[in-house]
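Fold these two proteins, one after the other.
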Amino acid sequence: MILQWKVVGIFSYPVTDKPDFSSLLTEIDRILAKVISSLVNPQEVTSETIIATRQQLESARALLSPLLLPDPTPEVARWSLGMEVQPEGVKVVFFRESQGLIDFYPLSWSLATGTSDRLPCPQVDEYLISWLSNRDFSTDSWLWEALERLEAIIITDDGETPTDDLKKALLTAQLIPPDRLSSLETAIATALAHIPTSDQPQPQTLLVIEGKRETTTLAIVEVPPQTRSLSRQAIALSHFNYGENTYERAILSHLIYPLWRSFLPLSRSALTDTNPLKKSLLAAARLTKLILQEESEFTSSLAGHTWTVSRTDLNKKVIIPYIDNLRQKVNDLLEKQQKSLEDIDRIIFSGNFFLTIWPYFLTEIQQEFAGCHLEAPSQENFSPTILGLGRLCLFLALRGEKVNNA
């Protein structure tokens, strides 16, 4: 609604002559390009406001262009298809780009469990082909245009979730030639969601910290003055083994097991992934994580034994060691790029790991990265990853190049 209100406000100004008319149309394009295309604050933008704002702009053009441009050249929109791959499923979104403005067309699916915006990975082939075969193009004119003008399909790559079967399914569907199917690292997609694409020079250096299930990815992105000329040579990636699952195992190892070891029948080394008891203990660790996000401590009992865990213990034995490790990995990457933390304009946190522990993690993060501008992980339906996939078409230099893995 914020975007719609702004557009209505612009159109409410009276126009008395042709030069002012032209100036107004230029101002409309400039503001909307800045608000929508830049997506500096993606959490404030929804699919509804984007599409509604785009429709208002097109309506204004239809009315004003005949007066300003007697023989306008029809503009052909560019379409792409983005797929955000996560363990719980694949989110599928069509993107329509025209003059730097991007519309989002998310798909939903009727599954046995109900309607969902995510498609189970093993069923992509079945559902996608069935969906295309049974679609009523007469009522979905945008889809006909999208498939006719589809230029690329981009799949996210988080380094953990397999995508080979998904790629085979897409090639089987024959939506595009094989050379137009590509992958984009989720950390890079997240960065693209935060980079403005206006004509004004806006150089900056971003640090993306992406927490996943088993790993944390770091990405340093040196945005050039002409932001759309960003290339993969300006991006450095690194990874280290620590994620949400690691965090829960650390709670088990450092908080729960020491309290339970007097009555557990196993040593810590015996708690392997094949041991059925470990599943129960990890469930207890997961519950401990959730409770300590709300309470300073809690007490429970097991087999007649009472045990207490506090947030202070969690911070001291689990969170602070992880943040120390994170800071060291950040310093290592900065050193390889001959930079310091003071050179970073923004630190962007993303990924499900940080979503599950934010804002309870925030105090320690702020202390460790004091003085830095921090971006919290987004909880919107359109994640920064989806927004970045849609905006990839604005950064042509990023396609077909290898990223600098530090």
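Now the second one:
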Amino acid sequence: MAHRLPAAGFVLAGALASSACGPLTAPHSSAEAAPAHGAATGTSPTLAQLEELPVRSPSSLADYSRESFGPTWSDEGTVGLSRNHCPTRQDILARDLAEAVRAKDHCTVISGVLHDRYTGKTIRFQRGPRTSLAVQIDHIVPLALAWQSGARKLSAGQRLNLANDPENLVASDGPTNAGKGAKDASMWLPPRGDAHCWYASAQVRVKAKYRLSVSSAEKTAIRTALQSCPASGQDKVGAAR
């Protein structure tokens, strides 16, 4: 994932507050998106939403380009955290890292602690040429997968929103994110089993929000993951955070 490395002084700032799952908004909405770490659990509404997703075989990646989703970490969208003069990467780091320290620009995150949802690891983040990649920002629905699932038919503005939507982003362990790549849920789920519920729930809500499809194998894998959700509907991993 791309990121910038400007020089920075120190200003302490707590991570932005997480929000719980709320109503989905249209791709062009300017309403604040619920952070990925507050993703809905796999209660009946989530399973029902999964059943409403169209089932199609993934389309070709021959014409896929990252540029189709706009500039990397653009602040120019109309989703939550947009137009606050901070690149999206910095917004998500500030949201997901504990003890986040921001620079004098009140934007750049220069240190913090990630309690990684994918692995359960605790990672101390320090911004720098050799250290920043230890924490990456994952697209829960990868952009290449989104393209294969129908994002090619979205407007340029909707694709920009999808790439920078807080609902579709989570700070994660760098090597784990790199290993995930553009795999769908039938080929990759978080190594930590307790994360399967919120991860699958987040994929469903993002795919529904942007009117994307699932493959048959992907749908089966997501349904299985949702069945791991606590009967109470509470996200145990989120509660631990």
